[in-house]
Specification:
The protein is an alpha+beta fold and 111 residues long. It contains four helices and six strands; from the N terminus they run αββββααββα. Strands 1-2 form a two-stranded antiparallel sheet. The protein has a two-stranded antiparallel sheet with strand order 3-4. A two-stranded antiparallel sheet has the order 5-6. The chain is elongated and about 75 Å long.
């Protein structure tokens, strides 16, 4: 590593190397996934170039967590047969067909 590299790094106690300056080039079409989840870490062992879709899938955001779910809150599978896709504004959301049918039955009984 060039000597001026370390002048721009704060080596933390947890093994992360925190970058305090500008970032270098990243391969075209890819972005860095910070495996340690510390966004300004520059330890090469903590970084992996991945596609945006893969980086989003691995993320900790609410939408990333929901995208990884394989079943609804009632335990029905999110598979091709039981999943309906609904568009709300700019979002495309998954809906459980089994839960929707149960809601419809409850509504009909009350009505």
């Amino acid at each position: 590593m060039p000597p001026n590299f370390w002048s721009k790094v704060d080596a933390g106690d947890n093994g992360c190397w925190l970058w305090t300056a500008l970032v270098g080039p990243i391969p075209s079409g890819l972005q860095l996934d910070h495996l340690c989840r510390t966004r300004h870490c520059v330890n090469p062992d903590h970084l992996e170039p991945v596609s945006q879709q893969e980086n989003n899938r691995r993320g900790e955001s609410r939408s990333s967590i929901r995208a990884r779910q394989t079943e609804c809150i009632n335990g029905h599978p999110f598979d091709d047969e039981n999943t309906a896709w609904v568009t709300q504004g700019k979002y495309r959301l998954r809906r459980c067909k089994a839960c929707a049918a149960a809601r419809a039955r409850r509504y009909q009984r009350v009505k």
